[in-house]
């Protein structure tokens, strides 16, 4: 089998059999392409399944060193190694013994939420700075979905007109094509409905709900760009991103007594361990309050 076919087959496997997101498929397939290209030069020959079965820890260390020259951080190198392991497992099977290689240590960061008034001010500023009223209404609705319903940016822009008419809950398709029901606050429903009424491209069941300026699907980058501009206007931290609104949704719910299991369902986390990180956020916030308020802190 020719070497370019292996990464392509791996990508298809991730999409079809593992139900990975399009973003994950692109990233992991790109890693496989880089590994095959590196090994072709490193070994000086064709990279086949048989050749990959003989890969060594030294080969993987050489590949990671090569990637480090591109400026990879520890976190990026760890993700690269994870993708490589998945690719090798796919190409040579479970029976083959994988070379043992310890990945770089990555300190798991604690999400940084923003205050409720900052979240609202951010959404308002993004809406006010929009070039057209309907774009302002669109961005307001998208950002309220992130902060008011805990959606990922990809989930929000991936909604179609099939969600209309809105009710008390909405069905959302998340990572690995898993669906979940999220409750909709009245303010969120009103924002979506207001956008739908003035969207110049109309709304249909089988097309994206949120449209770009020229009528195509709304790219997540457009929302990220608008948030960057708004946070500069408001003087907010660079950590104020669309995803920070989702973090804030989770942190504020937990602070109000939400159950971890219920929060896991709302966020669409496959593992409770992914949700438990927000307990660290809440503890960190309490410590900050203590240090700032206690006379002997």
Describe the model.
This protein has 297 residues and is mainly alpha-helical. It folds into two domains: 5-92, DNA polymerase, domain 1 (Orthogonal Bundle); 116-292, Orthogonal Bundle (hpI Integrase, Chain A). It is built from 13 helices and two strands; from the N terminus they run ααααααααββααααα. It has helices at 5-16, 22-43, 49-52, 57-68, 74-92, 116-128, 133-149, 153-157, 186-198, 220-234, 242-255, 260-267, 272-293, and strands at 169-173, 179-183. The protein has a two-stranded antiparallel ribbon. A hairpin with a 5-residue loop joins β1 (169-173) and β2 (179-183). The longest helix is centred in the first third of the chain and has 22 residues, at 22-43. The N and C termini lie far apart (66 Å). Residues 281-287 and 293-297 have low confidence and may be disordered.
Task: Explain the layout of strands and helices.
Blueprint: H1 5-16, H2 22-43, H3 49-52, H4 57-68, H5 74-92, H6 116-128, H7 133-149, H8 153-157, E1 169-173, E2 179-183, H9 186-198, H10 220-234, H11 242-255, H12 260-267, H13 272-293
Antiparallel strand pairs: 1-2
Describe the structure using short key phrases.
single chain, 297 residues, DNA polymerase, domain 1, hpI Integrase, Chain A, 2 domains, two-stranded antiparallel sheet, 59% helix, elongated
């Amino acid at each position: 089998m020719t070497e370019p076919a292996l990464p392509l087959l791996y990508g298809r496997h991730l999409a079809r059999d593992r139900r990975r997101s399009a973003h994950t498929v692109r990233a992991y397939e790109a890693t496989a392409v880089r590994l095959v290209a590196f090994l072709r030069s490193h070994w000086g020959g064709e990279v086949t399944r048989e050749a990959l079965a003989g890969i060594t820890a030294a080969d993987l260390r050489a590949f990671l060193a090569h990637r480090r020259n591109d400026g990879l951080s520890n976190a990026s190198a760890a993700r690269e190694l994870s993708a490589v392991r998945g690719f090798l497992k796919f190409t040579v099977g479970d029976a083959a013994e994988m070379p043992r290689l310890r990945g770089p240590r990555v300190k798991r960061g604690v999400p940084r939420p923003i205050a409720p008034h900052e979240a609202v001010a951010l959404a308002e500023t993004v809406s006010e700075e929009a070039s057209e009223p309907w774009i302002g209404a669109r961005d307001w609705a998208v950002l309220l979905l992130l902060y008011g319903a805990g959606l990922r940016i990809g989930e929000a822009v991936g909604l179609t007109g099939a969600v209309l008419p809105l009710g008390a809950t909405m069905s959302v398709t998340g990572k690995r094509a898993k669906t979940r029901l999220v409750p909709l606050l009245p303010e969120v429903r009103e924002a979506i409905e207001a956008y739908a009424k003035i969207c110049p491209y109309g709304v249909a069941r089988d097309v994206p709900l949120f449209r770009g300026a020229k009528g195509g699907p709304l790219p997540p980058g457009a929302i990220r760009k608008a948030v960057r501009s708004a946070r500069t206007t408001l003087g907010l931290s660079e950590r104020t991103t669309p995803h920070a609104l989702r973090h804030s949704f989770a942190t504020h719910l937990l602070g109000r007594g939400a159950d971890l299991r219920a929060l896991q369902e709302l966020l669409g986390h496959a593992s409770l361990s992914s949700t438990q990180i927000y307990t660290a956020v809440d503890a960190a916030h309490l410590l900050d309050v203590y240090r700032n308020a206690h006379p002997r802190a």
